[in-house]
Amino acid sequence: MTSAKSARRPHHWRRDLIELAALFTAVAVADAIANLIGHQPDGPYLLVASAVALVATAAFHTWWARKHSHAPPPAEGDSDPGPAASVGEPATAAAGGGVSGAEERTLWRMRTTVRDAPGSLATLCLALAGLRVDILTLQTHPLSDGTVDEFLLRAPASLQARQLTTAVSAAGGSATWIERADAHDLVDTPTRVLSLATRTALDAAELPLALRQLLGRCTIHSLPAVSVTGRPTGESTPVEGVLEDTVMRLRDPSGGVISVERPYLPFTPTEFARARALVELDARLGPRVPRGEDVLTLPEGNEITVRRADRGDLVAARAMHDRCSQRTLGLRYHGPVADADRYLDHLLSPRFGRTLTVQTASGKLVALGHLLWDGDETEVALLVEDEWQRRGIGSELLRRLVVLAGEAGCDSVYAVTQARNTGMVAAMRGLELPLDYQIEEGTLVITARLGGSDGCSAEKRLSGEQPVRPTDAPAERSRR
User: At residue 356, does pLDDT exceed 60?
Assistant: First the structure.
């Protein structure tokens, strides 16, 4: 590019004088040569032959230059420039085989192990290029005897997973694993890790969810050091944690062990280090729960406050248990009600889920709603004091818990109850989400799928975007 200043710079008069002198010199030399050759017997023939030779040489040079020059990249809709253009993000148009604007593409997440040798990754990339597959992102996980490469790929929709894995295996990849990806996977790894660290720093309940999103499909169990009955469970692990192929065990800062299992794919030392860093961050920050509360007005005019609960509410929760009837406690805990207080310390721990509490204007706790992480599944449970039942409190708590589950990326939630617990059944039906019912040994399990049939997520359905009938939930005003 030429700057505007240099573009406006006038030509110097000395340059014009030199060019004119060169022209006169060339004319004089040409005239002298023509006179010297032209006065010979065969002079005219020599001049004509020289002219023809010059024209032929110029024509050959022009043809050769056009044939071997580096052509510019073809525009969208031009012919396919070749397999090599399919490697990397800049070759998106080329990877479409000349119809990139019309061909449907699919995102894949793929992980494979290659030899730690020069050229092994290049061979793999060429194999993907031959299938017109774009490599959007690449992460490497060094091992002692090789390297695990993790790709985010954009491939033609007609390309099957088996074809992709076959080509990767032929290029030297082993232990290949592949699954469909979506737009959320387009976020680069440093940004995703920082986002998970931020969420963990703000809320201790986010640690299990952050680990699951960091490591992909895996099952996370929080194993307490002390059982519900107060006996030691014997669960412990070294401070640095333990990595055993498809299982990693990390010391829980609140006591016990966090066990992460992924049967289909071994963990790499890089993933183990990232997970341990998140756990260390949680340990340094200590117990924490976001402070915020919403004030709701019940149909009869009473005001209640909904907020997050933690172990600091243990005394108030036990007092509520004492005011609840045996029937209410039996419907909630499905077991001996005499042991109900023992569950509270577990339920109020942010490590095992999230708990919402409802308080009256006088500060008395009258309801608890639990969202509990259960491996790959999520359970919801409600307990409303007898005197405050059938006022819409349970429905409001359940709606908020389902929204929290949607924000955490859960696909469904389930409630374990009994058929005679009409309040819980009605609250689940009031979500207006697809429900599945299953009877197991006299116990009713109701599962709500958070992705609606019309594509509307539970978070949008229940976050207040739709009008709420006064009989379904109390009126609300926020106080942060």
Answer: yes
CA quadruple 465, 469, 475, 477: dihedral, nearest 10 = 10
The answer on pLDDT for 479 being more than 80 is no
Percent of the chain with pLDDT over 90: 25
Q: What is the pLDDT of residues 204-260, one digit of tens each?
A: 888 888 888 888 888 888 887 777 666 777 777 888 889 988 999 998 877 788 899
Q: Which CATH number fits domain 83-186: 3.40.190.10, 3.30.70.260, 2.30.30.110, 3.40.50.880?
A: 3.30.70.260
Q: What pLDDT, on a 0 to 100 scale, did the predictor assign at position 126?
A: 92
Tokens of 245: 């192929």
Chain length of the chain: 480
Looking at the chain, which residues constitute the CATH 3.40.630.30 domain(s)? 293-479
Residue 126 has which token pair? Answer: 């060429």
Residue 463: CB partners within 8 Å, gap ≥ 6?
A: 403
**Cα–Cα distance between 316 and 304 in angstroms, integer?**
15
Enter the tokens of residue 256: 């016990």
Vertex 362, ends 360 and 368: CA angle to 5°? 35
Burial class for 236, CB neighbours closer than 10 Å (0-12, 13-18, 19+):
middle
285: left (phi over 0), alpha (psi -120 to 50) or beta: alpha
Indicate the CATH number of 293-479 among 1.20.120.1760, 3.40.630.30, 3.40.50.2000, 3.40.50.150: 3.40.630.30
pLDDT higher for 462 or 73?
462
- The amino acid at residue 61 is H
Give the Cα separation of 61 and 68 in Å (integer). Answer: 11
* Among 361, 360, 318, 458, CA closest to 402: 458
Interatomic CA distance for residues 63 and 54, integer angstroms? 15
Cα separation of the two ends of the chain: 56
CA-nearest of 174, 181, 173, 175 to 155 is: 181
Q: What is the mean pLDDT of the chain?
A: 79
Q: 267 to each of 111, 114, 246, 260, 286, how far by Cα in Å?
A: 12, 16, 6, 10, 27
CA dihedral 69, 74, 80, 85 (to 10 degrees): 80
User: The pTM is what?
Assistant: 0.61
**Residues 6+ positions from 174 with CB-CB distance below 8 Å:** 112, 113, 114
Specify the domain boundaries for CATH 3.30.70.260 within the chain: 83-186
Q: For residues 279 and 349, what is the distance between their CA atoms, to the nearest angstrom?
A: 16
Whole-angstrom distance, CA of residue 206 vs CA of residue 179: 25
Side chain identity at residue 279, one-letter code: V
